[in-house]
Amino acid sequence: MSTLTVPFFSTVEDDLQQLEEKLLQSVPVSHSTLGDRLRLLIQAGGKRLRPTLTFHAGRIYDADPERILSVAAGIEMLHTATLIHDDLVDNALERRGVTTLNAAFPMGLVVLSGDMMFAEAARLVAEADHVAVIRSFARALSEICHGEILQAQSKHTLTSLEDYYTRIYGKTGSLFRTAAEIGAMLGTDDPDQIDAMSEYGRLLGLAFQIVDDTLDFTSDAQHLGKPIGHDLREGILSLPALLYHADTPSLHGAFRQVVAGKATEDQIAETIEAIKRSGAVERALEIARDYARQARRALAVVPDHPGRQALIELTRFAVARDR
Known about the structure:
A hairpin with a 2-residue loop joins strand 1 and strand 2. The two termini are 16 Å apart. The chain has one domain: Farnesyl Diphosphate Synthase. By secondary structure, it is mainly alpha-helical. It has 17 helices and 2 strands.
C-alpha cells in the first residue's frame, strides 16, 4: 500500500504496517479462491484515512495500542465491506486497479462475501472489549446502510440540499466520525473530549466527500480510477450539480437528459462543462473548506499533542487533494 507523504500518515507508519498484517490475517482462509480475491482487495490499499484517524485519536488519550489496532482494523474492514456491496450495486468491474468480486463471482456470493467482511469487522472491534465502542460501531453500520439506501433511492432525482447532506453523512461522515470517536473512547471517559473528536470526524467526513464529488468534475480518469462524470452517468446528482440546478431551476437541454438517465456521452460532457462554467464546483469546494475549518475548531478543547496537530493537517489535506 502506498501512503501519502503528509505528517498525518508518516507518524503512524508502524501502526499502518501492523494494520495491514491484521487485516490480511482476518480474511478467512477456508474459501481459497474467494479468500485470495479478498486479500487482493485489501492489498490494493486505499488512503487508510479512517483507521489512521483512530490511531491518532487513541494516541492523544494514551489508549492501549493493542485495542487501538483492533478497532482501527475493524473500521477499515467495515469500509472494505461497504465497497464490496457498493461495487455490486453499481455493477462496477474494477476497484483500485483490481477486478471486483462483482466481476468474478455470482451476485449471491458477492453479497455473502460483503456480509462476511461486516462480521469480521464486528469481531475485530469486539476485541477491544469496550461496550461504548461497540455501540458506536453499530450506530455507524446502521447509518452507512441508511446513506446507501438514500443514494439508491435518489438516483435520477433532484433532491434537496438537506437530503444530500444527510446522504453523504451516512455514506462517509458517519464512519469518519466513528473512527475518531472510538479512538478517543479507548483512552478517556470525558464526554467533552469524546464529543469534540466525534464532531471533528463528522465535519471532516462531510468535507472529504464534497471534495470527492467535485473531483468527479475536475480530475481525470487516471487519478480517479473511474471516468470523469461517473456519478452523473450513474444518476447520482452531487453537490456541484445541485448547486448548478439551484441557479438554473428550469430543466432543459443536456442537463434534463442527464437527470432522466437518457443522456448521450456528448450530453454528459456538455453538462459537465456547463456545471464547471457556472462556478458551482468552486462553490462546493468553499463549502467543503468551511466544513474543514469547523473541524479544526472542534479540536480546540483537545489536548496539545502531535496527534492533534496531525488531525489539523488532515483537514487541510482533505480539501487540497487532487485524488
